[in-house]
Design goal:
- By secondary structure, the protein is of the alpha+beta class.
- It folds into 7 domains: 104 residues, 2Fe-2S iron-sulphur cluster binding domain, sarcosine oxidase, alpha subunit, N-terminal domain (Ubiquitin-like (UB roll)), CATH 3.10.20; 201 residues, FAD/NAD(P)-binding domain, CATH 3.50.50.60; 118 residues, 3-Layer(bba) Sandwich (FAD/NAD(P)-binding domain), CATH 3.50.50; 79 residues; 147 residues, Gyrase A, domain 2 (2-Layer Sandwich), CATH 3.30.1360; 87 residues, Aminomethyltransferase beta-barrel domains (Alpha-Beta Plaits); 103 residues, Elongation Factor Tu (Ef-tu), domain 3, CATH 2.40.30.
- It is built from 23 helices and 51 strands.
- Strand 20, helix 8 and strand 21 form a beta-alpha-beta unit.
- Helix 4 packs parallel to helix 5 and helix 6 runs parallel beside helix 7.
- The longest helix has 18 residues.
- It is elongated.
- It starts with 12 loop residues before the first strand and ends in a 14-residue tail after the last strand.
């Protein structure tokens, strides 16, 4: 197909041809094409077949709002050809077809639509029950789109970035660019996201004059140049927003260009403020056979011509309900497309200038008329137009039917931040009524139709966003869009015109073949609101995410119900009784590979990592950290364990979370999240404490100390360190508490010096008195090491020996580690890893959350209920659940076990069943079990297990399944006995030395 040339709005380079393969044959597009536009230029009109009826489907939009052009591209199914950029040597195949999309023998299913009513999956094929397995297999084979190639391996590059900004503007049209510039001019940082591969939005391809003779595309280009020149604005094109979350967190996925080092990039943007300027999309017109190839939106037809240089047809008829439809008809006629007629179901309210331009081009204009049937079998060959009131009709031959009922806001990003939308009588849109702090909107999404008003609205939103972030907002943009600009044209709301015809062929949702008839059937069964109708009829559940049906569905429901009540079927303006269905992220389909990222092992290292590596440490990942697991090839870590039990060892515990909380209400915040009474912390003493979730399950433990008036320091587990601040803020968000919370984890290094000779080592590098009298077990003190290095030392007993936990500035960590090694050389000091600590604390009966706990176990189950202050004035998180569980006899209990055969060490996680009696069911599982090497326990295999209370009594014998042997054989089980904990030093004398 010859391309239009010389248009200033073209985004293609016709001189650069790109070869690709389609259905095994070589085709050609040009640089800048999408896969869909390249195929359209090559004459392809039928791209796919619908899922249920196997109806032919063609190009309808260019923004991927339906599955019409979903193809298998590069062996990846369900790729939206409308938005996928064309690449050299790309392979493209049809999908969801038998034989070809043009000639699919299953097209006969379209004649049996009466046997597939709304909800027929629920109402058929389940009786008799014996036939269901066979029917299920048939349904599974017929359902779904695309086919996965089990041998395919994704070879692209996916990376991820986590930028922070003051203002994130979503939408790169005129309003979005104006918002970004307005915010940046006030000194704040801006990130601008645009789903298309260039800025401009709807202005980019419109030649309509804005002021004087200046066309809209020129205004768009001028704004884009200003954006490029502003150093405070970072632009990401080809990067649609996919998620919006609390505290203005925005996620997006960018598709890489040819010169980018990635194919897809996941972005998680932490913004202080968000401006949504996503504009509008056209709302499909519902009429008979409105899904035929050759029916497309005006926006799609005009972009094909002015952006890609492709005339969308040979003869066209327009059926619209908005001024942009008239504008598109004029613009396409000027480019050489014969336009036989333009029907506009509005009887009045048209732009007079556009009507005059239609007349000047001898284009028949039919106000108060609309399409009610498209002719043709595989594609459009004509259309029958009808007067909306009288029913008079006329037929026109055409191969292109350009149809739209009006505009709908692209409100999904705004709804993710603001909640459910409601009908807005002034615009005819469904929009949120309230906005959370820091969220603003501007442009045509708010109903502004005049170009100048769109720009002013965006500018004003940008100024307000900058002001929210602390920028200068003293001078706001003038309010130029008056109330009249927000008023929808008369009669702009109809969604369904009620002419006689086959409702079974008037499609509301293309993806799922849902028609007006299906909506009626759903309503007749009592599903009277869109959210329920969506689930029963499947409207809007397809890959298009409701892009076709989203606005039409609530209007159609209201029209049908109004008709049943004796009202006019088109009387929908100002309706507030119905809302669109809910929006959930991702609002655009996203490859799982993009979420997965590069697959690189991204971890943090402690300041002593290199020194431990020199000692032969074997590192393993722990949360976001690399930690030394072993210091030899002995996986039983016997030498490390014995060093701590008989001499002294040191462990790098810098991965533990470390936080400071201070302020007038710091204690109240701690009381809310900790189960214990934080008001009872004594001066110079350490308090062990635990946090629970609302189910009473323990999610974190650590120690808390009071360092001054309304000033506390607390530690958390390694895995929880990154979430603690959000957890505390979340649970105190409604109490207006005055406190400051500081994460000191990365700035604090921790060394656990443990063993009977630990004090001897410490005394060699400090002049402070660290005797048992000055620093008792459970106490803490600040002092200095040799050279004036500050240290906060706590006497803890996690490994069951005399132990000093040294908290030092991270910059001193390597020096102190070396200093301890030199000082402890005469005592046989040894570095120990996480596995040795695991064995040592197991022998002492101390828990590690995540090993001895899971989502069902609460504070009481773990034997930690002594941490729960039941009479606290401030009720802690989880206390209600703990009260309900106090007298539940069937819960899991943490219990000590000893294997009867010391030669058997079952794997962690092994399931437990009763050893005696007829009941053979799972009553628990092993949490942690190891062979003990400590004095007095040599050779014993000891562990902790979560066991149902009736089987957790001391002396009970339990059977442990090995997980491999046949369950009926004797070799499948080993046996353990419930014993009392702790196993080692039950009186606790050694850690109190």
């Amino acid at each position: 197909m010859n391309r239009l040339e010389g248009l200033p709005t073209l985004r293609i380079d016709p001189a650069r041809r790109i070869g690709f393969t389609y259905k095994g044959y070589t085709r050609h597009g040009v640089a800048g094409d999408s896969v869909a536009t390249a195929l359209y230029a090559e004459g392809v009109r039928i791209f796919s077949r619908s899922m249920k009826y196997r109806r032919p489907r063609g190009l309808f939009s260019l923004d991927g709002i339906c599955a019409n052009t979903f193809l298998t591209i590069g062996k990846m199914p369900n790729m939206a050809a409308e938005t996928a950029a064309l690449r050299e040597a790309m392979t493209v195949e049809e999908q969801n077809v038998y034989f070809t999309a043009r000639n699919d023998p299953l097209a006969f299913l379209d004649r049996f639509d009466r046997f597939m009513p709304a909800g027929f999956y629920y109402e058929s094929m389940h009786k008799p029950a014996a036939l269901w397995p066979a029917a299920a297999e048939v349904v599974r084979r017929a359902a779904g789109l695309g086919q996965i190639d089990s041998g395919f391996r994704f070879s692209g590059v996916c990376d991820e970035i986590y930028p922070a900004t003051d203002v994130c503007v979503i939408g790169g049209g005129a309003a979005g660019m104006s918002a970004a510039l307005a915010a940046a001019e006030r000194g704040v940082r801006v990130i601008l996201l645009e789903a298309r591969h260039w800025l401009g939005g709807a202005f980019d391809y419109r030649s309509q004059p804005e002021e004087g003779d200046r066309p809209l595309y020129a205004r768009s280009a001028a704004l884009a140049e200003k954006i490029a020149a502003n150093p405070l604005v970072r632009v990401y094109t080809g990067a649609p927003m996919v998620g919006g979350y609390a505290d203005n967190l925005v996620t997006a996925v960018a598709e890489g260009k040819e010169d980018d080092p990635f194919d897809y990039r996941y972005m998680e943007i932490r913004a202080k403020s968000v401006v949504v300027a996503t504009g509008t999309r056209e709302r499909p017109l519902i009429f008979e056979d409105n899904d035929r190839p050759g029916v497309m939106l005006p926006d799609c037809a005009l972009r094909l011509a002015r952006t890609y240089g492709i005339l969308p047809g040979r003869e066209a008829v327009f059926s619209v309900g908005h001024d942009f439809g008239l504008e598109a008809a004029v613009a396409l006629a000027d480019l050489g497309l014969p336009v036989r007629a333009v029907a506009d179901f509005r009887e009045s309210g048209h732009d007079a200038g556009l009507v005059d331009r239609l007349a000047a081009r001898n284009i028949r204009f039919l106000p108060g008329w609309a399409a009610y049937r498209a002719s043709g079998v595989k594609s459009v060959t004509g259309v029958r137009l009808a007067a909306c009131k009288s029913g008079e009709s006329r037929s026109f031959a055409c191969d292109l039917l350009v149809a739209a009922a009006g505009l709908s806001p692209v409100a999904e990003p705004l709804v993710l931040f603001c909640g459910s939308p409601e009908a807005d009588g002034s615009t005819g849109f469904f929009l949120p009524k309230t906005y959370p702090p820091g969220v603003f909107a501007g442009g045509s999404i708010l109903g502004f139709s005049d170009p100048r008003s769109r720009i002013d609205s965006g500018e004003k939103a940008g100024i307000r966003a900058a002001g929210f972030c602390g920028g200068d907002s003293s001078q706001e943009a003038p309010e130029k869009g008056g109330a009249g600009d927000l008023s929808p044209p008369p009669n702009a709301a109809p969604v369904w015109l009620g002419h006689p015809g086959r409702e079974s062929k008037r499609f509301v949702c293309f993806d799922e073949d849902v028609t007006v008839k299906h909506i009626r059937q759903a309503i007749s069964r009592g599903f009277n609101v869109p959210e329920l109708i969506k689930r029963f009829s499947a409207a809007g559940t397809g890959p298009g995410q409701g892009g076709i049906s989203g606005h039409n569905l609530p209007l159609l429901v209201h029209a049908i119900q109004s008709e049943s009540a004796g009202c006019g079927p088109s009387d929908t303006a100002g309706n507030t009784g119905y809302r669109p269905t809910r929006v959930r992220p991702p609002v655009r389909p996203v490859l799982l590979a993009a979420y997965a990222g590069t697959g690189r092992e991204m971890t943090k290292r402690t300041p002593a990592h290199d020194l431990q590596a020199e000692e032969g440490a074997v590192f393993r990942r722990a949360g976001v950290w690399q930690r030394a697991r072993y210091f030899s090839q002995d996986l039983d870590v016997s030498e490390e364990v014995l060093a701590v039990r008989t001499n002294v060892g040191m462990l790098d515990a810098s991965t533990l979370g470390c936080f400071r909380i201070f302020g007038p209400d710091a204690l109240s915040a701690l009381q809310r999240v900790y189960a214990g009474d934080m008001g009872r912390i004594r001066e110079g003493r350490v308090k062990y404490a635990a946090m629970c979730n609302h189910d009473g399950c323990v999610i974190d433990d650590g120690v808390v100390i009071r360092t001054g008036e309304n000033d506390y320091m607390f530690t958390t587990s390694t895995g929880r360190a990154g979430e603690t601040i959000e957890w505390i803020r979340y649970h105190t968000r409604y109490e207006n508490l005055a406190y400051h919370l500081v994460n000191l984890t990365d700035g604090t290094a921790v060394i656990n010096l443990a063993g009977p000779r630990a004090r001897d080592v410490l005394e060699k590098i400090t002049d402070a008195d660290v005797s048992g009298g000055a620093l008792p077990f459970g106490g803490w003190m600040d002092f200095a090491l040799t050279g004036g290095i500050p240290v906060r030392c706590m006497r803890l007993g996690f490994v069951g020996e005399l132990s000093f936990e040294l908290n030092i500035p991270a910059s001193y960590m390597a020096h102190v580690w070396e200093m301890l090694r030199r000082a402890g050389r005469e005592f046989g000091i040894r570095s120990i890893g996480v596995e040795a600590q695991n064995v040592l604390r197991l022998e002492k009966g101390h828990v590690i959350l995540g090993q001895e706990s899971e989502q069902r176990t609460n504070l009481i189950d773990l034997g930690l209920d002594f941490l729960w202050a039941r009479d606290k004035t401030i009720r802690p998180v989880g206390s209600d659940a703990l009260r309900q569980a106090e007298n539940d006899p069937g819960r899991l209990k943490l219990s000590g076990i000893r294997m009867k055969d010391p030669a058997v060490v079952p794997p962690d996680g092994s399931v437990i069943i009763p050893a005696d009696g007829p009941e053979k069911r799972i009553v628990g599982y092993v949490a942690t079990i190891r062979k003990s090497l400590s004095p007095g326990l040599e050779g014993d295999v000891l562990g902790m297990a979560l066991v149902e209370a009736p089987w957790a009594r001391e002396g009970t014998t339990l059977a442990i399944y090995d997980g491999e042997s046949p369950a009926g054989s004797d070799a499948a089980f080993s046996y353990a006995v419930i014993v009392r904990m702790p196993f080692y030093d039950p009186e606790g004398k050694r850690m109190r030395m």
